[in-house]
């Protein structure tokens, strides 16, 4: 009887260790964080992470073996996406635990925020209240495919790489909220600094659309 129980327990923990293997690489965590934003091709993930196609494919295979992602062939491309909403919760839980428990992550956030002068960080609650005013302009800094997948209501899409060239098109008489992929993305702070340096009144929301949606549903 004891042997049966031991084998049962060991088999379960062995299965769970596949999840641990998936999360044991910073690049695989980055891939998961990207896929939270929406489905992406191998080529797109490779470009975003700076890895070769071969290395990207190897990491994706590990994530697929752990059932954290699924894929589908569309024409000449293979498209990957998060397996289900529980995986999204897992990614954000991991980020949250890291921020609370690891002093290195707290220090990295603090040092980066200190280096970005002229930023006005706001909370989800503050941003949600500001968004009720139709005069508030919300800018989503993510690539177009992520914006098209999901975005905050009434937000406009100006990818970070195109923001500077679009400054003349933005109104200076409106308050602006900028957001990107969430707490591990630097673009919201950098965009806020760029806008405020150029005479705008911009706020940095270091939260993702997923965070916004959860807050809205609360």
TrEMBL record:
All copies of domain HTH arsR-type, residue ranges: 8-102
Pfam families annotated for this entry?
Answer: HTH_5, Rhodanese
Gene3D superfamilies cross-referenced by the UniProt entry:
Rhodanese-like domain, Winged helix-like DNA-binding domain superfamily/Winged helix DNA-binding domain
Q: Where is the Rhodanese domain?
A: 132-214
Record's InterPro entries?
ArsR-like_HTH, GlpE_sulfurtransferase, HTH_ArsR_DNA-bd_dom, Rhodanese-like_dom, Rhodanese-like_dom_sf, WH-like_DNA-bd_sf, WH_DNA-bd_sf
Listed GO MF terms: DNA-binding transcription factor activity
Superkingdom: Bacteria
PROSITE patterns found in the cross-reference section: HTH_ARSR_2, RHODANESE_3
Name the NCBIfam families on file: HTH_metalloreg
Q: What is this protein called?
A: ArsR family transcriptional regulator
Q: Which organism is it from?
A: Leptotrichia trevisanii
